[in-house]
Amino acid sequence: MPNPRQTFFGHVIGTAMQKTIKVRVEKIKIHPIVQKPVRSHKNFLVHDEEEKCVVGDYVKIESCEKLSKLKHFKLGEIVKPAQRAFDSEGNLHTQGHKFKTIPKHYNLNEYKF
């Protein structure tokens, strides 16, 4: 069980599941022998109750009770939202990716374009 105060920052890399996002958390460490930065990452499945996140958002995640077999974190806040755009048919586009139509509960006034 994760530490109850554990928090990470990362980028959303997937939103294909209902109320769940995949977040990639990167760590940079100095290699002890070569003395150069080495990047490593870990992917976490995170609970997103309101389904506000899209691919490209920079988010803060917080540990919580185990919600399912693989979900131990919940969405804390969206630190830096990705650029969002809507076409004439109402489809959501972010950073060159096309997504399904906007859910009815999606609050457009929450984001400034």
Give structural notes.
This is Ribosomal protein S17. InterPro entries: NA-bd_OB-fold, Ribosomal_uS17. It comes from Boothiomyces macroporosus. Pfam families: Ribosomal_S17. This protein is an all-beta fold. The chain has a domain of 76 residues: OB fold (Dihydrolipoamide Acetyltransferase, E2P). Helices cover 0% and strands 54% of the residues. It has no helices and eight strands. The strands form two sheets. It has a five-stranded mixed beta barrel. It has a three-stranded antiparallel beta sheet with strand order 6-7-8, with no helix packed on it. A hairpin with a 2-residue loop joins strand 1 and strand 2. The protein starts with 6 loop residues before the first strand and ends in a 12-residue tail after the last strand. The mean pLDDT is 82.
CATH architecture of the domain at 7-82: Beta Barrel
Radius of gyration: 16 Å
Figure out the total of helices.
0
Estimate the strand proportion.
over 45%
Can you count the beta strands? 8
CATH superfamily of the domain at 7-82, called what? Answer: Nucleic acid-binding proteins
Gap between N and C termini, in Å? 39 Å
Order of helices and strands: EEEEEEEE
Large-scale geometry: globular
* Major β-sheet annotation: 5 strands, mixed, barrel
